[in-house]
Automatic annotation (TrEMBL):
Lineage: Eukaryota, Metazoa, Chordata, Craniata, Vertebrata
One MF term in the entry's GO annotations: chloride channel activity
Span of domain Anoctamin transmembrane: 195-484
Keyword hit for Transmembrane: yes
Coiled-coil boundaries: none
Keyword DNA-binding: no
Transmembrane intervals: 212-232, 238-256, 309-332, 352-372, 395-416, 428-450
InterPro entries linked: Anoctamin (IPR007632), Anoctamin_TM (IPR049452)
Predominant location category: membrane
Keyword annotations: Membrane, Transmembrane, Transmembrane helix
Protein name: Anoctamin
This protein's GO CC annotations: plasma membrane
Length: 494
């Protein structure tokens, strides 16, 4: 097993911890030895050829491991995952170690050639693609069966032996990003390139879209102010405003497609080669030979996958759509009940009751969307798609169809079946405002409260000990946070 670190040890100069692995407490020693050996073993022997350092806390626990990689290993990993980098001639090409000198800003001593997000992605990719060779079970746990080609990390997760794998934050990089992002008083655009280098392309695109969409809504807001203030009775004016919104929304999407293509090309994700994409970690099947690459990888019948899709997943999605329509009809029954109640009483309370069904329905829609998302993820994983891109495409299709019907079916029904414009305005306003409040609570207020809670817990822990536990405290803090909370607090001081 790799050499242990006490909780006061300092890191070796050539080891940079990038990813943390947390095993379940009480995991047998032979299991941890076997797992860490597979991580550090050579690729020719089925290992990941990474660096591992056990992190021993002051309580003596040895269930946390820090994972890193040498600079050479990261460069070879960049080639294997197909990272696209900029060349000296300003073109974008897939990185190849043999022609590394032709890439812009490359130098043997430049350890910043690969961004932190790329380094962590490479390590995560290598860990997730650790697959069983001749093992029939996880050593020490006969009930955790293995077969050639089975993902070791996935089996450890399903067996409860592996608690989680998460990237470790770099405090110094966070301080630099915080200063350039929101630490300055000067108002300006977000440093999307720096966000991309630290968090990756997905998070950078998310914040880039928020920035773009905020500016794109300004013309619509300015033009819509007179309609809200004067409340004109001439509906022709509203038709003009609706036509402008329709035209402007189309322009917004088309311009964003161009901006998104520019950013993804500059970051290299637009050109990543999918034809050499390796099997996703959750893909399982009998171990065989890929006829294109010649590598050993799991093989699964496409006929079985299609049967799962059309005989199980498709009927389930249709059943969920029917249930969504059934809930919608219950909502209209509640609307009719609230209207009858208002006509009988004609009071301020009865006027408020007119909005209650829409509010309840908006909450139910959000709950159904979240529950269905978990079911869709489970079904798509069960379909056993070979590639991550195929998995994401099927998942997006399932979620998009249900969310569209669940969120907008009632509005179409009111507009084109009931022809009730008053109810349409009331329902649309209530649904949008309620969903915005719920989303703001889930995406901002709740993570902010959890962040304050963890900060308070950190202060209490620091008062109990006069020792600066540095990396141990950071790992213990981050491992207790959810993925979303870690992202939310990342630009805060850890």
């Amino acid at each position: 097993m790799a050499e242990s670190w006490s909780f006061l040890d300092t890191f070796e100069p050539d080891f940079r911890p990038l990813v943390v692995i947390e095993l379940a407490k009480g995991t047998k020693e032979e299991t941890t030895e076997w797992f860490t050996k597979r991580i550090v073993d050579k690729k020719a022997n089925g290992g990941a050829q990474l660096l591992v350092k056990p992190l021993v806390t002051e309580n003596g626990d040895k269930n946390i491991y820090l994972v890193g990689a040498s600079h050479l290993r990261l460069l070879l990993g960049a080639e294997s995952v197909g990272l696209v980098k900029e060349c000296n001639d300003n073109s974008m090409r897939t990185f190849a170690y043999s022609s590394r000198k032709t890439f812009k800003d490359f130098a043997d001593d430049n350890h910043n050639f690969l961004t932190m997000a790329e380094c962590q992605y490479i390590i995560k990719h290598e860990l997730e693609n650790l697959r069983a060779k001749d093992e029939k079970m996880i050593p020490g746990y006969p009930q955790a069966k293995l077969y050639p080609g089975k993902s070791i990390v996935r089996r450890l997760l399903t067996s409860g032996l592996l608690v989680q794998i998460f990237p470790l934050h770099d405090r110094e990089e966070l301080k630099k990003l915080r200063h350039s992002w929101y630490g300055r008083v000067k108002v300006g655009y977000q440093p999307l390139d720096e966000i991309r280098c630290y968090f990756g392309e997905t998070i950078a695109l998310y914040f880039g879209f928020l920035e773009y969409f905020t500016f794109a809504l300004i013309p619509m807001a300015v033009i819509g102010i007179p309609y809200y203030v004067f409340a004109w009775e001439d509906y022709d004016k509203y038709v003009m405003f609706a036509a402008f919104n329709l035209l402007w929304s189309t322009v917004i999407l088309e311009v964003w497609k161009r901006i998104c293509a520019i950013m993804t090309y500059r970051w290299g994700t637009l050109l990543m080669k999918r034809q050499f994409e390796e099997p996703r970690p959750g893909f399982h099947g009998a171990l065989g030979i890929n006829p294109i690459t010649g590598r050993e990888e799991p093989v699964y019948s496409s006929i079985k996958r299609q049967m799962r899709i059309y005989l199980v997943s498709l009927p389930f999605v249709c059943l969920c759509l029917y249930f969504s329509l059934y809930v919608m009809m219950i909502y209209f029954d509640l609307e009719q009940w609230a209207l009858d109640y208002h006509e009988e009483n004609e009071s301020n309370f009865s006027s408020l009751m007119l909005f209650v069904p829409s509010i309840i329905y908006a909450v139910v829609i959000e709950i159904m969307n979240r529950i269905y998302r978990y079911a869709a993820e489970f079904l798509t994983s069960w379909e056993n798609h070979r590639l991550e891109s195929s998995y994401q495409n099927h998942l997006i299709l399932k979620v998009l169809v249900f969310n569209f019907l669940n969120c907008f079916a009632s509005l179409f029904y009111i507009a084109f079946v009931l022809f009730d414009m008053k109810l349409l305005r009331q329902s649309l306003a209530t649904l949008l405002i309620t969903s915005q409040i719920l989303n703001q609570f889930a995406e901002s207020l709740l993570p902010y409260w959890l962040q304050k809670r963890y900060k308070m817990k950190k202060r209490v822990c620091s008062l109990k000990t006069d020792t600066d536990v540095s990396i141990v405290g950071q790992v213990n803090l981050e491992k207790e946070m959810g993925t979303y909370l870690v992202c939310f607090t990342a630009v805060k001081e850890l």
